[in-house]
Design a protein that fits this description.
Elements lengths: L1 H22 L65 E3 L17 E3 L21 E3 L10 H5 L6 E3 L18 E3 L21 E3 L23 E3 L18 E3 L21 E3 L22 E3 L17 E3 L10 H4 L22 E3 L11 H6 L5 E3 L1
Parallel strand pairs: 1-2, 2-3, 3-4, 4-5, 5-6, 6-7, 7-8, 8-9, 9-10, 10-11, 11-12, 12-13
Amino acid sequence: MKAAFRLLLLLILVLISEVNGQRRKPGRKPARPTSERKPARPTPEWKPARLTPEPVEPTELPPPLPPGPPSVFPDCPRECFCPPDFPSALYCDSRNLRKVPLIPPRIHYLYLQNNFIDSLPEESFKNATELRWVNLDNNRIKKLDRRVMEQLDSLVFLYLEKNQLKEVPSFLPANLEQLRLSRNQISKIPSGVFNKLEHLVLLDLHHNKLSDGVFNKNTFRGLKNLMQLNLAHNILRKLPPGLPSAVHQLFLDRNNIEDIPDDYFKEFPNLAFLRLNYNQISDKGLPKNSFNLSNLLVLQLAHNKLTTMPFINPKLEHLYLNDNSIEKINGTQICPTSLVTFQDFSSDLENSPRLRYLRLDGNQLKPPIPLDLMMCFRLLQSVVF
């Protein structure tokens, strides 16, 4: 009995110890003392992502335009346009080009204006010997290649306005008829540059930096047939010497010209249109018969310093004297013919002065229009007073 009781007690103790072992779980590690704890990692401060600043001008020049569709002409440069109904023309204008493409030999009319071209490579023009018309306005050309110019024997019209030329180009084709060089930086005309240009009829040099020292009596030698010369908007103080005697139209406005030498315009028997607006011409610097020219039809003297109306030829038809300092007009003194009486006002109109348009606004005149002025210029159709 005792033995059985002991065995039962031993079995109970074993069971109790098994249960206790299953209930026991591993405990957490004891916390470290405050002095031994690691410092907490700081939370990084938020910052916006750094962006690369945009340039003021992303590129110096805009990209060239993409090539157009294939042309019916196999030799047509892809960056240009060759109209099917105008096979002798090549349009490469306003396409942001940096270089001149290879010009096909069939081209007579070449349009390259409004690009960024700075030179004319010989390679581009090696086959273009039949060119007659070249427009290079509004580019960045500083000089012309002599080898290119010398092979363009058929060139008649050359447009180089609004470029960066500092002097009139040399070695220009001898058959040239129109040369347009306005809005450059030209301050020099090389000696003999026009000697072989006897076919030139139009020379445009307005809006450059030409001064009195640039011109001498031989500057325009060779221009035997020049009809239009534009020297407006330069820095002239005197009328240049040696102008071509054949000139019909002469533009000298927007300079600083103060006086006109005696008989200066007598050297131009064909002069029909003369423009001298925006200068410094006064009565003192104007000889009486300066504009007494038999072929002169239009005379512009606006925005000067005149105080009296100049003497004119009976054949003059348009006279601009606006914005001067004219205070009084004596029709008797300025009339190029004898005044008629009121009774004869409608007679003999064939021999009366031919003036039809007269502009006098912007002066110090007061109405009414002087009667003797109207009695003299009986064909006047419009007077701006």
